[in-house]
Design brief:
Blueprint lengths: L15 E2 L2 E2 L12 H12 L12 E6 L8 E6 L5 E10 L4 E11 L4 E4 L10 E5 L3 E7 L4 E8 L13 E4 L6 E5 L4 E6 L4 E7 L5 E6 L5 E6 L3 E6 L6 E6 L6 E6 L6 E6 L5 E5 L8 E3 L8 E2 L10 E2 L1
Antiparallel strand pairs: 1-2, 3-4, 4-5, 5-6, 7-8, 8-9, 9-10, 11-12, 12-13, 13-14, 15-16, 16-17, 17-18, 19-20, 20-21, 21-22, 23-24
Length: 312
């Protein structure tokens, strides 16, 4: 005898009611024993978890945007050596396993990896990595090769460049990409011309993160001077301090909500809190998320809502 959530009896056979088949269950469920049929129905609606184990310790990861390349991501190694690796991994529809499609060398561990934000595949299949330089890679999945397309240096007159902790690709204009550096600067690149579109001293100390707002003009940065700043590329002579920590604790991550230009999420170094800022009301956060028991090191907004998940 089976009861519903209110405790009412619904009959001895839940798979059939008054001789009418339940459309929510598999068609052949009525020819099987009840327990076996329930197990089959559960398996058909069960979520699958796919694992991939790299032979190297991993740090950076970027998920592909392209609709014709589903379940594809790039994975960067963390090897304490000059030569590191970037793997391109994709889910095989034949055996339902993640397989390594390509692997190529990368100087030093990549601090961040991003695929070009091109869902329809109208542009070249590009991959960007940051380290001591910004590198743009052209990926050829059909022939199984990845070639360096551009190696962009912030300081061209010097052999050595300051490391780039992070970068962000402008979703609304994939020709624009912004990097941040420990030399206190942010650099906006024109990828088509492979030239610097704008470069500015963004903070008094190291800049750890950069994030574009929706649109093509505004971006925010997170600095070791304990501030989150907003910039407009139409007037880079001025910036707005969205928030400044009282203890001058370094900010390590900032993420702009793509659904609205009002909200920013940011985290401080060695903190278990995520601060939500409204740029219309700067100076103090509108919300603090305290759900973690340990330090938070990464944040991301859901792409089509105002909710923000965080991980440590």
């Amino acid at each position: 005898m089976i009861n519903d959530v209110n405790g009412q009896q619904v009959g001895q056979n839940h798979a059939q009611t008054n001789g009418v088949a339940d459309p929510a269950l598999p068609p052949n469920i009525y020819q099987q024993p009840m327990e076996a049929a329930i197990m089959e129905a559960r398996q058909q609606t069960q979520c699958h978890i796919y694992n991939y184990e790299s032979q190297w310790r991993c740090y950076a990861m970027g998920y592909s945007w392209r609709a014709d390349m589903p379940f594809r991501f790039a994975l960067g190694s963390f090897i304490e050596d000059k030569v590191n690796k970037v793997e391109i991994v994709q889910l095989s529809t034949a055996n339902h396993k993640f397989i390594q499609r390509q692997v190529f060398d990368h100087q030093y561990p990549p601090t961040k990896i991003m695929w070009i934000p091109d869902r329809e595949g109208h542009r070249h299949d590009l991959l960007a990595t940051s380290g001591e330089h910004l590198r743009i890679w052209k990926v050829d999945m059909e022939n199984g090769r990845t070639d360096i397309r551009a190696e962009l240096k912030n300081i061209k007159q010097s052999e050595y460049a300051s490391p780039l902790p992070s970068f962000d690709w402008n979703i609304d204009n994939p020709n624009v990409l912004g990097t941040c550096s420990i030399d206190t600067t942010c650099t906006i690149w024109d990828l088509e011309k492979e030239t610097i579109k704008a470069q500015l001293i963004a903070h008094d100390k190291e800049v750890y993160d950069i994030s574009f707002a929706a649109g093509v003009d505004c971006f925010a940065s997170a600095g070791a001077d304990g501030s989150i700043r907003q910039f407009d590329m139409r007037n880079l002579e001025h910036s707005t301090i969205v928030y400044e920590s009282k203890e001058q604790a370094p900010f390590v991550r900032v993420a702009w909500n793509r659904s609205t230009t009002c909200y920013l999420a940011c985290i401080m170094m060695n903190s278990n809190k995520v601060l939500i800022m409204d740029i219309r009301y700067p100076v103090s956060p509108i919300l603090e998320l305290n759900g973690h028991g340990d330090f938070v090191n990464s944040i991301a907004w859901a792409p089509n809502s105002r909710y923000v998940p965080a991980k440590r």
